[in-house]
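Need the bound structure for 1,6-di-O-phosphono-beta-D-fructofuranose, inputs here:
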Amino acid sequence: MHKLQELLFHNKALFLALDHGLEHGPKDFNIQTIDPEYVLNLALHGKYNAIVLQKGLAEKYYENFRYKVPLILKLNGKTNLPQNVLPYSPQNCSVSRAVKLGASAIGYTIYFGSPYETQMLKEFSKIQEEARDHNMPVVVWSYPRGPGINDLDTDVVAYGARASMELGADIIKLKYNRNLEGFKWIVKCAGKARVVLSGGPKVSTQEFLKDVNDIISVGAVGVAVGRNVWQHNKPLEMSKALNEIIFERKSVDYVMRKYKL
Ligand code: FBP
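Answer from helper R.:
Posting the output first, comments after.
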């Protein structure tokens, strides 16, 4: 059984996200992480369930990792240049292209509550059905966003989780507002879809590992993380620590001591 399919049975997930060049621009990277091969090697040696890439990175860098690290191909994306702050993330790749590139799952961001929601839901419904035809899991970046939306309000996050599940997501990537009771409800709202934490901007090691540990304790299956790992000064140790917290349920104190984080 494929590693990513396995996760749907074992309920544990550790994904490494590398789509920031498009979403945020190269400012998130340093001289090492600007090289996608460096981050792909981290995904391999850090034993991630999958790497998240946009089409162009997959075309140019994924071939050597194809049978080693499963790929979640992101099918939409946008820049955050000042003129482009509108919450619409257009599709830039098809499911059949994702299959050709060796993807094991596809990813799509939905900005629930955005003035472009209708357009995005139309795109997504087609993608979701095509993914079903190819037997590929569907990962939704559930990011409520737009005028008047507080994307960290528990009810708003829960609405996004429920809507994603009802629209056919298998895995839902969402933000955590550090309200653990609220997160328990969010996981319930996602039903049989699995919930993974979206990493967010870099915070202290202890804060991040605690967040991961907390959300797992209330039913999330893991994390889809980018900056909190590859911006860390010990990214491999951080990956090992995450592995032990998620897959072995080791404590935060234990892994921090073990890996000198
Ligand atoms: P991080 O762990 O670095 O936050 O990555 C998760 C992610 O969803 C990326 O996949 C994506 O590029 C980025 O965050 C989008 O974040 P935002 O839209 O909040 O700027």
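Comments: The CA atoms of residues 16 and 51 lie 5 Å apart. The mean pLDDT is 95.
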